[in-house]
Amino acid sequence: MKKAPSYQLMILEFKKFLKSTGITQQELAKRSKIPLSSIKKILAQGPNSKIDCSINRLIQMIESVGLNFFEFVASIQKKQQEDIFSFTLEQEIFFAKNFDYFLFFHKCFRDFQTPQNAKKQLKLSDKIYWPILKKLESFQLLEVLPGEKLKFKVTGGIKYLADGPLQDVILKKTLKGLSDYLLTGSVPSTLAKTSEELMSGFLRVYFGKVSKLNYMQFLEQLRSLHLQLAAHCISDRKVLPPSELVDVTWGFQLANISAMDLMLGGA
Fold it and tell me: What is the pLDDT of residue 191?
């Protein structure tokens, strides 16, 4: 049975529909006969907010602009499925042992780099460059066209195998690079610099005590926020040109562990 999309995701997709069709909030209020103040409140809520909107009101809003609610939900579910692909276990094992192959694929597929630019950034010699292309082709991930152009045979975001070998390697390398960045402020020379405003990030460390209920609720909000951010990464990449995209990295960690015990353990 397919899992129904969250209220947050439905409202996010509905807002995209309104923008694409040019329907204003005032027009929506008129069609749905819902007060404009309520419309503004519902559409202004963030991805990790508790949506203050009943299912009946949500249906009323969606169907007032000519959409069928159940078809709208089904289209979101289909989009979620189509926007995700996974490597096979064989591929993950290979990429974990030959990480340059994965980095090359990622730079071309996710970062829009040409094969030549990816080769240059990763400082690959011809001796490794051509075997990489040949291996990725044998994995049915892409096809090499004349002029060293690539035609990808996969689309959407990458879903790594749970507790798989590749996810473990990526996590360790990412956390090492992120910790170095947070401690020193230095970034790899290949990172494209953006404006100071965009480069500013957010980091907070907090430890305390909270009720089990609040702990579980906040954990669920973090999971929801992660899914929303991941969905933006996939959808924005599909509809916006590379020049309008910026690199982002995030990591959430909320655990039933005493930070003081961690600090003592690291002493």
Answer: 46
Residue 1 lies in a domain: no
Residue 50 token pair: 């508790």
Neighbours of 136 (CB within 10 A): 24
User: Is residue 110 included in any domain, yes or no?
Assistant: yes
CA–CA–CA angle 139, 142, 145 (5° rounding): 130
pLDDT in tens, 153-183: 988 778 888 888 999 999 888 888 777 776 7
DSSP-derived pairing of the beta strands 142-145 and 149-152? antiparallel
Rounded to two decimals, the pTM is 0.57
Same domain, 124 and 180: yes
Q: What is the pLDDT of residue 26?
A: 95
Q: Is 2 within the bounds of a domain?
A: no
User: Is residue 106 within 8 Å of residue 116, measured between CB atoms?
Assistant: no
Centroid of chain to Cα 71: 24
Q: Do 17 and 64 share a structural domain?
A: yes
Residues 144/133, Cβ–Cβ less than 8 Å: yes
